[in-house]
């Protein structure tokens, strides 16, 4: 991709350049679209992705019309074939990436409801999809001295203080023994309880339970991945960011802040100077906290 004639350039002293590539999933609207725009405005090259090709291209076109370095590529994070095709395209046509923002997510609940009718779809997209895409793209990160970054858009609904089952809380708190297979088993257990109708009294989060469990799993996976990459000497940071109650289609327009306000903070986290960049952190709006300590 050649964006040498685009208008926006990185600010003086920035660690990134026009060649720095950020991938933002679920970016045809809402927080994802605002984040893609903000990163492009900072002078990066952005790959905007969405499940729907027509909607994704319609979201990318006005950004390109402003002179921003934005490409669109269809991606369904819940579909292994789509993920594999996207990874191959990114490798062959872009050459890799430096920043991954896992934003794609779904919820089927209204603000004041808590149905788990679509729990399998929610987990497949919000947790397994983000995990599958991350693992597929890990070999493609250009591990520059500035450190590559993964920023998972998460939620405080998935924090451990929302879990009341002592055994589940103990499992997730013990980070020295926690494994990815244990996280997968937790998700499978939840889905099995949804299927047999017993999930309600099992100590899971009380609000938007399926969505909350998906973020609980994503937070735990992010911590494990951060530790795994650190142990391997890989210069790739992994952090989670809870934007809080934001006015988007998912919240039917309810919320305390706009997607653009969230994008300001999210872009700042994604672009932290290398010397200030942590890993394995949960950012609750602006403040980094260890999710397991809340």
TrEMBL record:
InterPro entries, A to Z: NAD(P)-bd_dom_sf, SDR_fam
Keyword flag Transport: no
Matches recorded under Pfam families: adh_short
Highest taxon listed in the record's lineage: Eukaryota
The entry's keywords: NADP, Oxidoreductase
Family the UniProt entry places it in: Belongs to the short-chain dehydrogenases/reductases (SDR) family.
This protein's name: (+)-neomenthol dehydrogenase
Record organism: Urochloa decumbens
Upper classification of the organism: Eukaryota, Viridiplantae, Streptophyta, Embryophyta, Tracheophyta
């Amino acid at each position: 991709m050649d964006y040498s004639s685009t208008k926006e350039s990185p600010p003086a002293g920035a660690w990134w350049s026009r060649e720095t590539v950020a991938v933002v999933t679920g970016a045809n609207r809402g927080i994802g679209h605002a984040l893609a725009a903000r990163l492009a405005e900072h002078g990066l090259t952005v790959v905007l992705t969405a499940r729907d090709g027509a909607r994704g291209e319609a979201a990318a076109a006005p950004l390109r019309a402003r002179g921003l370095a934005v490409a669109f590529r269809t991606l369904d994070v819940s579909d292994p074939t789509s993920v594999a095709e996207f990874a191959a395209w990114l490798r062959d046509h872009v050459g890799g990436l430096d920043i991954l923002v896992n934003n794609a997510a779904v919820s089927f609940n209204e603000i004041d409801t808590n149905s788990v009718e679509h729990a399998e779809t929610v987990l497949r997209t919000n947790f397994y999809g983000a995990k599958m895409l991350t693992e597929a793209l890990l070999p493609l990160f250009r591990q520059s001295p500035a450190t590559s970054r993964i920023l998972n858009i998460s939620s405080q609904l998935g924090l451990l203080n929302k879990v009341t089952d002592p055994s589940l809380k103990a499992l997730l708190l013990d980070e020295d023994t926690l494994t990815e297979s244990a996280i997968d088993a937790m998700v499978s257990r939840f889905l099995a309880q949804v299927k047999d109708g017993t999930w309600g009294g099992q100590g899971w989060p009380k609000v938007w339970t399926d969505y909350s469990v998906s973020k609980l799993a994503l937070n735990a996976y992010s911590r494990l991945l951060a530790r795994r990459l650190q142990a391997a000497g890989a210069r790739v940071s992994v952090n989670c960011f809870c934007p809080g109650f934001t006015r988007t289609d998912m919240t039917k327009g309810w919320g305390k802040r706009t997607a653009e306000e969230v994008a300001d903070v999210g872009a700042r986290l994604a672009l932290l100077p290398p010397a200030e960049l942590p890993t394995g952190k949960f950012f609750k709006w602006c403040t980094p906290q260890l999710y397991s300590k809340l």
